[in-house]
Amino acid sequence: TLSLSKNAESLYVGKKTKLTVSFTPSQYVFREVSVTALPEGFIMVSEKDGVVSIEALRPTPAGTPVKVVVKSQKAPTVEASCDVTVLPLQSPTHLSLGHDKLERYIGQHISLPITFTPADDVDKRITVTALPDGFVNARIERGKLLLDMLKPTAAGQPVTVTVSSVVAPTTKISCEVTVLALLPPLEIEFEKRKVDLYEGESQRVHFSFTPDKNVDQAVSLSVAPEGFVTARIEGSDVVLTALKQTTSPVTVTVTSEKAS
Predict the structure, then answer these.
(1) Count of alpha carbons within 13 Å of 115, Cβ hemisphere only?
(2) Counting Cβ atoms within 10 Å, is residue 27 exposed (0-12), middle (13-18) or buried (19+)?
(3) How far apart are CA 1 and CA 81, in angstroms?
(4) Is 56 helix (H, G, I), strand (E, B) or coil?
(5) In angstroms, how far is CA 225 from the centroid of its own chain?
(6) What is the pLDDT tens value at each position of the chain, 260 positions in all?
(7) Closest by alpha carbon to 169, among 92, 114, 100, 87?
(8) CA distance 228 to 257
(9) Virtual CA dihedral for 8, 9, 10, 12, nearest 10 degrees?
(10) Pairing mode, if any, of strands 8-12 and 79-87?
(11) Residues 6+ apart with CB under 8 A from 244
(12) Burial (CB count <10 Å: 0-12, 13-18, 19+), residue 105
């Protein structure tokens, strides 16, 4: 005879289980078996070394489980079976983001994990909106809400980011996001106050901002007197190239476009 470790099993969509095939007698017996699952399309089933692997694909109709049948290839009348019912995923009753209000500066990014109740065997399909448009880019990736800050929101008018369940649209969670303008720098400072160059020589000089975070780094560049040195900005560096000999120092100035 053949037997399975269970004669009935219930699984949620996406879940997997294994059933053990037992043989009588337990020794010196032909162990090659075949496995079928009818009706088709509801589960995926395979057998290897006396273990039947089952994966739930889609819900079975009420009262109509899938019958998994294992038969001996040597004696086809010797068989064992298990009725497998596939349950639909549960609808979430509650969503959580961990925050109901946020403030971030332009250019910043944040990742918020989305928590479902119940936590297991739940349909986690969700949608996200961010209104009004144009201030925050909101998207869902791998169960997290990702937010990119695009431009400042008007005073007292945060963006409402809402995450909603697809299967239970009334189950939703919102977070008010205020996007702050970057700060004007209080100071811009070169790492060197003086540079000596030979004709044709170039040198890169780094400059930094105070404060060093969340500051508007839009700057302009001036050289006076002109004609002796060229200067260009690359990131947070000024690249200087000497053209010809000077009789007095050339002043290179980096000026914030936002600071008053």
Answers:
(1) 5
(2) exposed
(3) 12
(4) strand
(5) 52
(6) 999 999 999 999 999 999 999 999 988 889 899 999 999 999 999 999 999 999 999 999 999 999 999 999 999 899 999 999 999 999 999 999 999 999 999 999 999 999 999 999 999 999 999 999 999 999 999 999 999 999 999 999 999 999 999 999 999 999 999 999 999 999 999 999 999 999 999 999 999 999 999 999 999 999 999 999 999 999 999 999 999 999 899 999 999 998 76
(7) 92
(8) 25
(9) -150
(10) parallel
(11) 199, 227, 228
(12) middle
State the maximum Cα–Cα separation within the chain, in Å, rounded to a whole number. 107
Amino acid identity, position 249: P
- Sequence letter at residue 66: V
For residue 234, count other CB atoms closer than 10 A to its CB.
8
Residue 182 · residue 216 · CB < 8 Å: yes
**Pairwise CA distance, residues 75 & 199, whole Å:** 96
The count of C-alpha atoms lying within 13 angstroms of the C-alpha of 144, restricted to the half-sphere facing its C-beta, is 9
Which residue is associated with the tokens 């079975």?
60
